[in-house]
Amino acid sequence: MSDCLFCKIVAKEIPAQIVYEDDDLLAFKDINPQAPVHLLVIPKEHIASLAEATPAQAGLLGKLVLRVKLLAQEQGLAEDGYRVVVNCRDLGGQTVPHLHFHLLGGRFMTWPPG
Ligand code: 5GP
Ligand code: ZN
Fold first, then answer.
1. Which atom of ligand 1 lies at the shortest distance from residue 94's CA?
2. What is the separation of C-alpha 33 from the centre of its chain, rounded to a whole number of angstroms?
3. Which residues span the domain enclosing 80?
4. Residue 106: how many CB atoms within 10 A of its CB?
5. How many angstroms is it from 17 CA to the middle of ligand 1?
6. Is 39 part of any domain?
7. Closest alpha carbon to 21 in 59, 71, 69
8. Which tens digits make up the pLDDT trace of 6-35?
9. What pLDDT shows up at residue 113?
10. Closest Cα to residue 16, out of 61, 51, 8?
């Protein structure tokens, strides 16, 4: 997806503060952090949102979720806790149409969200 912001970050066409990368996944700091730790964890493959995910991507999605867990540990969030958010399409508040998991931590999270 040549016009996708996060595909451009994957392709290193747009800079980002990358904290983790492997063949399938990328994690980088959110440009507008909502907590002391705010990472975005994405599949390198373009998946527009969770609504577009397919059973064929089950392995990739499992790796993504477990990577979020490991990043939370590495960021020192695991003991106190953290929040993982996936906004999906317009009413979910998704603004970048490339699947991403927000990893948020380092402050107390209120519920429900706005
Ligand atoms: P969404 O609202 O789609 O769930 O989340 C998109 C996130 O991407 C937002 O938290 C926003 O701050 C972040 N974001 C938007 N543009 C950029 C960018 O160019 N670089 C980085 N690192 N984050 C971005
Ligand atoms: Zn994309």
1. 3
2. 12
3. 5-105
4. 15
5. 12
6. yes
7. 71
8. 999 999 999 999 999 999 999 999 999 999
9. 83
10. 8
